[in-house]
Write a structure and sequence with these properties.
- There is one protein chain.
- With 463 residues, the protein is α+β, with helices and mostly antiparallel strands.
- 37% of the residues lie in helices and 24% in strands.
- It contains 13 helices and 22 strands.
- It has a six-stranded mixed β-sheet, with helices on both faces. A five-stranded antiparallel β-sheet has the order 7-8-11-10-9. It has a five-stranded antiparallel β-sheet with strand order 12-16-19-20-21, with no helix packed on it.
Amino acid sequence: MVIETLRQQLASCTSIPRPRYLLAVSTGVDSMVLLTAMEKLFADQKDKPFAVAHVNHQLRTASKEEAAFLSAYCATRGIVYFERTWEKRLAVGVEAAARAFRYDFFKEIMAHDHYPILLTAHHGDDQAETMVMKMVRDGSLHNAFGMRQTQHFGQGILLRPLLKLSKEDLHAFAAANQVPYFEDETNQQDLYLRNRIRHHIIPTLKKENAQTIPHFQQLSEEMIYGQELIADLQKEWLSRYVERRENQQIVWLEQLSDLSKAARYWFFAGLLQQTNSQQGALNHKQLQQVLDALDTPQGQWQIDMGDRWQMRRSYDVVILEQKPVPSETAVSWKQEMRVGIGSSLFLSENEWIGFFRSDRIEIPKKITNWSEFSQDLPLNYSSELILRKRKPGDRIQLQANLRKKISRYFIDGKVPNEQREKSWVVTTPGQEVVALIPYVFSYLSIAAETDKIHYILLYKYQE
């Protein structure tokens, strides 16, 4: 069964006309079965189309002995052998670091010595363990599937030809063919999550159903196909519904009205995953925050998406954007400012305000072409105005019989929060609101059309 399965899997690599294989061998039973099966499969060829790569991690007392055994084993059989020793010792993250070192070594050999196909001895029990471990650690469809039978790797491909076989299949082959191997004593310890799953969970599942291992493999394949289908849909949706601007991705919610709840879930998952591609995996807690916020009647909200990004809703639009970097030159006005007749001031690099008699207006040259918001005020109006940010309870007279809270004016006009924060309230010393800049002037502040000379409040700004 092992040799026939191996033959079928190698035959699937049709994209490489004259394949040469690099075998990752640890001297454990799984990889030694793979090596023995390859020897038998190519027994009639003097020049073996495969080589062996081994890493001595120096993590166990037997590591040196195992490396010496494998080196001698390959030498007596005329098999090309590569070996490297891992010198770096770590207190934490040993498994991940050792794996990274191993696979970097394999890539180097594949590129330098022209072995386009890497073979590993992962089998069905490894697959089940991997999937259970991912569910314990993550729980997302995006990561829950197991190892792929074939995938791109380095400048070639990585093939796991034994993935559909069980641990029992490999042990039976080893016993029947007297395959020599070393037993890693740490595999019997429960120090690592994988070992605990291997010793306590997988055996229990196998007792429940002998088809557990094939079922995990089938589930993994269906998850991979499902994820590929979802990824294609996400690509289409992101292209259709997302308007990209500098440091922003904009979604008009009305365009999503025809999408089902499931489609909306995967649309926003794709949007966040695309943004998080440089930071790591999709944060499902953030995704759920966004979906929950979209289900509320709130017209405006903002969610922190991490170090660099934020998502906010402004009524009919959702904006995913990089967080603004505070300008070192921006002025933050926390106190009231007084502007008398004939005076002016810059509120920021892009804002200027002046209060003049209509026949004595003075505007700096550099702002002549800026946008303008202005109003004529009666000459008998206050000779000094106060400029400040809005306060709770501020009201403005919009018509003779209509006085409205500024907060309600913003809500009725669906003015986004970030624009509200940029607005200015102008009052008289007696706290009568003259204007909400740059939106509206008070009904009471408007000068009569017959006035030849009057005051003018002039606000100029640059987008």
